Amino acid sequence: MTRFRVDPPKLAAAVAQMTGFHKVVAASVEEAQSVMARLAPSWEGEAATAAREAHRELHAGAQQMEEALGQLKRFLDNAHQGYERAIAGNSRMWGVE
């Protein structure tokens, strides 16, 4: 049987760190969108086309990352809640509060 140990405060810290990272990524993507919106009307040629394509790729990648981070955050939140409930239940069962 495999043994493992979970540190609920560290798990909660991981959730908080992941949430913070998600906010930074979202703000960076929003800033890139703002810059592209300002440049688009006056920018033409190959460089403009390449920049728009790069921006589309950035946006698609950011959306994928946002979805993955959201799933990971939900997983970590659920795991944290489950471990906290297990700890509380075991403490009650063994009379350790």
TrEMBL record:
Entries under SUPFAM superfamilies matching the protein: EsxAB dimer-like (SSF140453)
Pfam entry (one): WXG100
Name of this chain's protein: ESAT-6-like protein
Superkingdom of this protein's organism: Bacteria
The species this protein was found in: Mycobacterium talmoniae
Signal peptide span: none
UniProt xrefs under InterPro entries: ESAT-6-like_sf (IPR036689), T7SS_ESAT-6-like (IPR010310)
Family membership noted in the UniProt record: Belongs to the WXG100 family.
